[in-house]
Amino acid sequence: MTPQNTLPQDIEAYHRQLDSEENAVCSLLAGIIASELVEAEGKLWHAHPVWFIEGNPIVGYSRQKAGIRLMFWSGADFDEEGLNVLGKKFKDASVFYQSVEQLDETDLVRWLEKSRNIQWDYKNIVKRKGQLLRLK
Protein backbone atom coordinates (compact mmCIF):
# COMPACT_ATOMS: atom_id res chain seq x y z
CA MET A 1 0.00 0.00 0.00
CA THR A 2 1.10 3.54 -0.68
CA PRO A 3 2.07 5.32 2.54
CA GLN A 4 -0.65 7.63 3.84
CA ASN A 5 1.64 10.68 3.64
CA THR A 6 1.80 10.45 -0.16
CA LEU A 7 -1.92 11.21 -0.42
CA PRO A 8 -3.13 14.75 -1.01
CA GLN A 9 -3.73 16.60 2.27
CA ASP A 10 -7.45 17.00 1.63
CA ILE A 11 -7.85 13.22 1.30
CA GLU A 12 -5.80 12.67 4.47
CA ALA A 13 -8.12 15.12 6.27
CA TYR A 14 -11.15 13.18 4.98
CA HIS A 15 -9.70 9.97 6.42
CA ARG A 16 -9.02 11.57 9.82
CA GLN A 17 -12.71 12.38 10.34
CA LEU A 18 -13.73 8.70 9.91
CA ASP A 19 -13.98 6.08 12.63
CA SER A 20 -11.15 3.54 12.80
CA GLU A 21 -12.73 0.81 10.61
CA GLU A 22 -13.88 3.32 7.98
CA ASN A 23 -10.41 4.89 8.02
CA ALA A 24 -8.80 1.47 7.53
CA VAL A 25 -11.03 0.71 4.53
CA CYS A 26 -10.48 4.14 2.95
CA SER A 27 -6.73 4.09 3.56
CA LEU A 28 -6.45 0.68 1.93
CA LEU A 29 -8.58 1.81 -1.04
CA ALA A 30 -6.58 5.03 -1.44
CA GLY A 31 -3.27 3.21 -1.33
CA ILE A 32 -4.27 0.68 -3.98
CA ILE A 33 -5.89 3.32 -6.20
CA ALA A 34 -2.84 5.59 -6.01
CA SER A 35 -0.42 2.75 -6.75
CA GLU A 36 -2.44 1.35 -9.68
CA LEU A 37 -3.61 4.61 -11.29
CA VAL A 38 -0.33 6.50 -11.06
CA GLU A 39 -1.41 8.88 -13.83
CA ALA A 40 -4.57 9.87 -11.94
CA GLU A 41 -4.97 12.97 -9.78
CA GLY A 42 -6.65 12.39 -6.42
CA LYS A 43 -8.53 15.18 -4.67
CA LEU A 44 -11.72 15.90 -2.76
CA TRP A 45 -14.62 16.49 -5.13
CA HIS A 46 -18.09 17.17 -3.76
CA ALA A 47 -16.56 16.44 -0.31
CA HIS A 48 -15.35 12.90 -1.23
CA PRO A 49 -12.02 11.47 -2.46
CA VAL A 50 -12.07 11.05 -6.24
CA TRP A 51 -9.34 10.20 -8.77
CA PHE A 52 -9.35 11.81 -12.22
CA ILE A 53 -7.59 10.95 -15.47
CA GLU A 54 -7.21 14.01 -17.70
CA GLY A 55 -9.94 15.78 -15.72
CA ASN A 56 -12.44 12.92 -16.02
CA PRO A 57 -13.65 11.33 -12.74
CA ILE A 58 -12.72 7.64 -12.66
CA VAL A 59 -13.06 6.24 -9.13
CA GLY A 60 -13.89 7.50 -5.68
CA TYR A 61 -15.36 6.54 -2.35
CA SER A 62 -17.64 7.97 0.29
CA ARG A 63 -19.02 7.12 3.72
CA GLN A 64 -22.69 6.13 3.62
CA LYS A 65 -25.05 4.31 5.99
CA ALA A 66 -24.39 0.97 4.23
CA GLY A 67 -20.60 1.40 4.62
CA ILE A 68 -17.83 2.79 2.47
CA ARG A 69 -19.11 3.05 -1.09
CA LEU A 70 -16.44 2.52 -3.76
CA MET A 71 -17.76 3.94 -7.04
CA PHE A 72 -16.47 3.70 -10.58
CA TRP A 73 -18.00 6.39 -12.82
CA SER A 74 -17.99 4.06 -15.86
CA GLY A 75 -18.30 0.82 -13.89
CA ALA A 76 -21.63 -0.32 -15.36
CA ASP A 77 -19.71 -1.26 -18.51
CA PHE A 78 -17.03 -3.29 -16.68
CA ASP A 79 -19.25 -6.42 -16.70
CA GLU A 80 -18.25 -7.25 -13.12
CA GLU A 81 -20.58 -9.06 -10.71
CA GLY A 82 -18.82 -7.53 -7.71
CA LEU A 83 -19.83 -4.02 -8.79
CA ASN A 84 -23.45 -4.73 -8.06
CA VAL A 85 -24.87 -1.31 -7.16
CA LEU A 86 -25.67 0.26 -10.53
CA GLY A 87 -26.49 3.90 -11.09
CA LYS A 88 -29.99 4.72 -12.27
CA LYS A 89 -29.15 7.68 -14.50
CA PHE A 90 -25.51 7.29 -15.56
CA LYS A 91 -22.91 4.55 -16.18
CA ASP A 92 -21.65 4.22 -12.60
CA ALA A 93 -21.35 1.05 -10.54
CA SER A 94 -20.41 0.58 -6.90
CA VAL A 95 -19.71 -1.82 -4.09
CA PHE A 96 -19.97 -1.30 -0.31
CA TYR A 97 -17.41 -2.30 2.31
CA GLN A 98 -17.89 -2.42 6.06
CA SER A 99 -14.40 -3.81 6.81
CA VAL A 100 -11.01 -4.31 5.16
CA GLU A 101 -11.58 -8.08 5.20
CA GLN A 102 -14.34 -7.65 2.61
CA LEU A 103 -12.03 -5.95 0.14
CA ASP A 104 -10.54 -8.26 -2.51
CA GLU A 105 -7.39 -6.58 -3.81
CA THR A 106 -7.32 -8.74 -6.97
CA ASP A 107 -10.82 -7.56 -7.89
CA LEU A 108 -9.95 -3.95 -7.12
CA VAL A 109 -6.81 -4.01 -9.28
CA ARG A 110 -8.80 -5.53 -12.17
CA TRP A 111 -11.53 -2.89 -11.81
CA LEU A 112 -8.94 -0.12 -11.75
CA GLU A 113 -7.41 -1.42 -14.98
CA LYS A 114 -10.87 -1.44 -16.55
CA SER A 115 -11.47 2.10 -15.26
CA ARG A 116 -8.44 3.21 -17.24
CA ASN A 117 -9.64 1.51 -20.43
CA ILE A 118 -13.42 2.04 -20.23
CA GLN A 119 -14.38 5.67 -19.77
CA TRP A 120 -17.43 7.80 -20.38
CA ASP A 121 -16.94 11.56 -20.66
CA TYR A 122 -18.21 12.92 -17.34
CA LYS A 123 -15.85 15.87 -17.60
CA ASN A 124 -18.04 17.51 -20.28
CA ILE A 125 -21.47 16.25 -19.18
CA VAL A 126 -22.73 19.74 -18.26
CA LYS A 127 -21.54 21.20 -21.56
CA ARG A 128 -23.36 18.36 -23.36
CA LYS A 129 -26.54 18.95 -21.33
CA GLY A 130 -26.42 15.58 -19.56
CA GLN A 131 -25.45 13.48 -22.56
CA LEU A 132 -22.63 10.99 -21.96
CA LEU A 133 -20.23 10.06 -24.75
CA ARG A 134 -17.85 7.11 -24.63
CA LEU A 135 -14.17 8.16 -24.53
CA LYS A 136 -12.57 4.72 -24.48
What are the salient characteristics of this protein?
3 helices, disordered N terminus, Aspartate Aminotransferase, domain 1, 136 residues, globular, alpha+beta, 28% helix, six-stranded antiparallel beta sheet
Your description of this structure?
There is one protein chain. This protein is an alpha+beta fold and 136 residues long. The chain has one domain (4-117): Aspartate Aminotransferase, domain 1 (Alpha-Beta Complex). Helix content is 28%, strand content 24%. It is built from three helices and six strands, in the order ααββββββα. It has helices at 9-16, 20-36, 105-117; strands at 41-45, 48-53, 56-64, 67-72, 85-86, 93-97. A six-stranded antiparallel sheet has the order 1-2-3-4-6-5, with helices on one face. β3 and β4 (67-72) form a beta hairpin. α2 (20-36) crosses α3.
Task: Indicate the topology.
Elements: H1 9-16, H2 20-36, E1 41-45, E2 48-53, E3 56-64, E4 67-72, E5 85-86, E6 93-97, H3 105-117
Antiparallel strand pairs: 1-2, 2-3, 3-4, 4-6, 5-6
Quaternary organisation: single chain
What form results from the Cα inertia axes?
globular
Specify the helix fraction band: 25-40%
Which fold name corresponds to the CATH topology?
A: Aspartate Aminotransferase, domain 1
Number of helices: 3
Q: Bin the strand percentage.
A: 15-25%
Q: What CATH architecture would you give?
A: Alpha-Beta Complex
Structural class: alpha+beta
Summarize the structure.
The protein is α+β, with helices and mostly antiparallel strands and 136 residues long. It has helices at residues 9-16, 20-36, 105-117; strands at 41-45, 48-53, 56-64, 67-72, 85-86, 93-97. It contains three helices and six strands.
